[in-house]
Write a structure and sequence with these properties.
Layout lengths: L6 E5 L18 H10 L4 E2 L9 H10 L3 E2 L3 E4 L6 H17 L4 E6 L24 H20 L3 E5 L9 H9 L5 E5 H6 L4 H7 L4 E6 L1 E2 L1 H10 L3 H6 L3 E2 L9 H9 L4 E5 L10 H16 L2
Parallel strand pairs: 1-2, 1-11, 2-3, 4-5, 5-6, 6-7, 7-8, 8-11
Antiparallel strand pairs: 9-10
Helix pairs in contact: 1-11, 3-4
Length: about 300
């Protein structure tokens, strides 16, 4: 279905070692992670916490495994920190990605985030507890738009990652972001959309002209429902298996791939699923997703 388009398949090391909860996969080495990524048939990886942050060192390591760096997450705190500090931190990250040959930079506003706190229940679709005031929203939108301009001047595209437990997780908030920015692209994460109670296909359709990066993450609907009913924290939801890979469980990807074909999408599609590697063997799930994507897309 997507064969012939300039699309490459990458994978997130969070499948092996979780970036938020270090007890998940903490014993898995970077070497094991990279070996299994390549064994499963992926050509790129996003940045994980075990990756060296020196571009020369990382290039040499990735070269051994014939892998490219796709991009890396950058947390912004535009609502609560000074723009000068945020811009300085962002430029350092952008420089690193450019040195690594990346084409996109992934950002998410993490002021007042709750996803890293095991004591806090996720706020599913409501507004209370996550809302910024008008002045704070303005700081976020102006800051992100400036960051997008900076990225563009360096030959990269800024894409925004909506994420559960942050100030932009559902469609209401994505709509607001898209309305008040122009150059900011959207990272479409199928799993976080479904987890937030949104229809990934509808969001991909609505913002197909702003779509700059894709995360292929799946959900287990029964865990989503249980998490809502019992007011799980993000950590508990992850550890109980809310996420999985394409080809396993809840989301139908074929219509989403049709949207990508319609817009002649170029770039990376990245498989991602925060799971407990003791329960969900990383190589097994990496292969499951790769085999599914080969059948569904021809890639």
């Amino acid at each position: 279905m997507l064969k012939g388009l300039d699309i490459k398949l990458g994978i997130q090391p969070i499948i092996w070692s979780n970036d938020d909860f270090f007890d998940l996969g903490g014993n898995i080495s970077l070497e094991t992670c990279l070996t299994e990524m390549r064994e499963a048939g992926y050509s790129g990886a996003e940045l994980g916490h075990k990756f060296p942050k020196d571009s020369k060192v990382l290039k040499e390591i990735l070269k051994i495994y014939d892998l490219n760096l796709v991009s890396g997450w950058h947390s912004t705190y535009l609502a609560t920190e000074s723009f000068k500090k945020e811009a300085s931190d962002y430029r350092k990250h952008l420089k690193f990605l450019k040195e690594m040959g990346c084409s996109v930079v992934i950002v998410a506003e993490c002021s007042h985030r709750t996803y890293n706190d095991p004591k806090l229940s996720l706020n599913w679709r409501g507004e209370e507890g996550r809302h910024l005031n008008t002045e704070d929203w303005e700081k976020v939108f102006i800051g992100l738009e400036e960051f997008a301009r900076i990225a563009e001047s360096e030959g990269l595209k800024l894409v925004y990652h909506h994420h559960m437990g942050t100030v932009i997780q559902n469609l209401i908030e994505i709509d607001r972001l898209m309305e008040y920015t122009e150059k900011v692209g959207l990272l479409g994460d199928t799993g976080h959309l479904a987890f937030a109670g949104e229809d990934p296909l509808a969001v991909f359709k609505k913002y197909k002209k702003r779509l700059g990066h894709v995360h292929l993450k799946n959900v287990r609907p029964e865990v989503v429902k249980r998490g809502r009913d019992q007011k799980y924290s993000f950590e508990r939801a992850v550890k109980e298996g809310v996420f999985t890979v394409p080809g396993d469980a809840g989301i139908s990807y074929e219509p989403i791939f049709e949207i990508l074909k319609e817009i002649d999408y170029e770039g990376w599609m990245v498989v991602e699923a925060e799971q407990d590697p003791e329960k969900a063997k990383p190589l097994e799930y990496a292969l499951k997703a790769r085999n599914y994507l080969k059948k569904a897309t021809g890639l």
